């Protein structure tokens, strides 16, 4: 069974590459699952189970037909709507309300500056210290210097800081201004800076996830917008992106070495286990999950947070791990998380609902024009299958703010208001 996902996603990637006559978003998504499936083979072949977040050990591994079929089928269902996007067909991305998009961009820049204010005093000190200890403190619930500083701010600023996650929307907006709307260079660079707000904040807890997340979603937008980048813009993008990429890679390597160098196999083996455990842990969830415990705080995090005072935090996950009888904070792909929360039947219903919502939003294939509101929603929805090679990313109530923000732009920008005098 271990070969099946790799063979399946390899064929699916090749099929979409031939059909789209190039490297499109769906090819990228399927390629990610091809890679993680290949790494799962390496893990099993080298007896690297029972460590690095992998729940199976070398003696009780169960990779059966049914979970393998569901794994391939419902991951494909999540990617299928994005096969309707042919980047070579897109001629323009428009907006009915350019001032609305400018206002959103300014808001995200403000949030990024607020984040910079919170982390500026401590970032260099953290980077020059023991990153392993910083991460351990985070797991033990010890507040970071930025969190302590944030508590001294007025309530309105503390609330607005929830939108720091929404700065991810600056990535598609950055490309939008680069390709379709002329704005001063400093404004576009500020948007690029804004898009880096979450990776910068992640340094406070020696976190690597935000760096990986940023890179994966930046590539998603680069694929979408690449045909519209002139040679001059590509040179500018390389000039700005290469230093950022090198800094991110250096940070990732340093943090990985600090956290995992003392483990058997070191940081390289740990990275392999982290990236390749999705299929293995999905099968474990399928076989071992206790379906008596159904909870939806990850699927409806805003309701859970405000109505029931439940958050998907370390304390809550430890309780649920005790109910399940195994440690649940591992990577089992996004459908694995939904399976554990809602049982297999709930996972099927959730995956179908996600498929229908995305299909309705995209409307039809080979579209030549998209509204910027539609593109923001495409970006938000694409986070699920793209970063879903690890887990369901939109499980925090703060991510719901980002979804709501993109949805409001999607709805409002369908109508042209009187104040919008600027053409796009």
Please give a structural write-up:
With 424 residues, this protein is mostly helical. The protein is built from 20 helices and 2 strands. It has a two-stranded parallel ribbon with strand order 1-2. Helix 12 crosses helix 19, helix 13 packs across helix 14 and helix 18 packs antiparallel against helix 19. The longest helix has 30 residues. The protein is globular, with a radius of gyration of 21 Å. The C terminus is likely disordered.
In short:
By secondary structure, the chain is an all-alpha fold. Helix content is 66%, strand content 1%. The chain is globular.
Q: Which percent bin holds the helix content?
A: 55-70%
Mean pLDDT: 93
Order of helices and strands: HHHEHHHHHHHHHHHHHHHEHH
How many strands appear in the DSSP assignment?
Answer: 2
Q: Separation of termini?
A: 52 Å
**Strand sequence of the main sheet, in spatial order?**
1-2
**Oligomeric state as shown:** single chain
Gross morphology is globular
Biggest sheet features: 2 strands, parallel
The structure class reads mainly alpha
Radius of gyration: 21 Å
Our count of helices gives 20
List the helices and strands and how they pair.
Blueprint: H1 4-20, H2 25-45, H3 65-79, E1 92-94, H4 98-119, H5 123-127, H6 131-139, H7 145-150, H8 155-160, H9 170-180, H10 185-195, H11 197-202, H12 209-225, H13 231-260, H14 266-276, H15 278-288, H16 301-308, H17 314-324, H18 333-362, E2 369-371, H19 372-386, H20 397-412
Parallel strand pairs: 1-2
């Amino acid at each position: 069974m271990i070969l099946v996902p790799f063979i399946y996603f390899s064929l699916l990637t090749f099929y979409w590459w031939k059909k789209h006559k190039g490297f499109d978003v769906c090819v990228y998504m399927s390629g990610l699952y091809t890679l993680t499936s290949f790494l799962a083979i390496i893990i099993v072949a080298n007896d690297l189970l029972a460590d690095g977040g992998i729940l199976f050990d070398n003696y009780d591994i169960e990779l059966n037909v049914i979970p393998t079929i569901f794994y391939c089928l419902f991951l494909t269902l999540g990617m299928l709507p994005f096969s309707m996007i042919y980047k070579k067909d897109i001629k323009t991305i428009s907006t009915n309300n350019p001032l609305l998009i400018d206002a959103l961009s300014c808001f995200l820049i403000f949030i990024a500056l607020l984040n910079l204010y919170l982390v500026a005093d401590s970032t260099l000190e953290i980077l020059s210290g023991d990153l392993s200890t910083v991460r351990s403190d985070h797991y033990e619930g010890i507040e970071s210097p930025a969190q302590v500083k944030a508590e001294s701010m007025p309530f309105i600023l503390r609330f607005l800081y929830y939108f720091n996650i929404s700065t991810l929307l600056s990535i598609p907006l950055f490309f939008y201004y680069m390709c379709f709307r002329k704005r001063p260079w400093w404004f576009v660079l500020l948007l690029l800076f804004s898009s880096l707000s979450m990776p910068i904040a992640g340094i406070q807890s020696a976190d690597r996830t935000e760096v990986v997340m940023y890179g994966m979603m930046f590539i998603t937008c680069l694929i979408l917008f690449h045909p519209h980048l002139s040679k001059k813009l590509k040179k500018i993008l390389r000039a700005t992106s290469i230093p950022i990429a090198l800094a991110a890679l250096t940070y990732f390597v340093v943090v990985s070495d600090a956290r995992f160098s003392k483990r058997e196999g070191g940081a390289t083996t740990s990275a392999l286990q982290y990236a390749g455990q999705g299929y293995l842990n999905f099968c474990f969830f399928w076989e071992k999950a206790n379906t008596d415990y159904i909870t939806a705080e990850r699927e409806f995090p805003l309701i859970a947070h405000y109505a029931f005072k439940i958050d998907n935090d370390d304390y809550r996950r430890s309780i649920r791990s005790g109910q399940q009888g195994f440690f649940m904070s591992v990577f089992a792909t996004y459908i694995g998380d939904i399976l554990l929360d809602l049982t297999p039947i709930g996972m099927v219903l959730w995956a179908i609902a996600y498929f229908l919502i995305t299909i309705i939003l995209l409307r039809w294939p080979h579209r030549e024009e998209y509204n910027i509101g539609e593109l923001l929603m495409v970006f938000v929805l694409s986070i699920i299958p793209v970063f879903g090679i690890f887990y369901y990313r939109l499980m925090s109530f703060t991510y719901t703010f980002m979804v709501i923000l993109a949805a409001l732009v999607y709805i409002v920008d369908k109508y042209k208001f009187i104040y919008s005098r600027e053409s796009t």
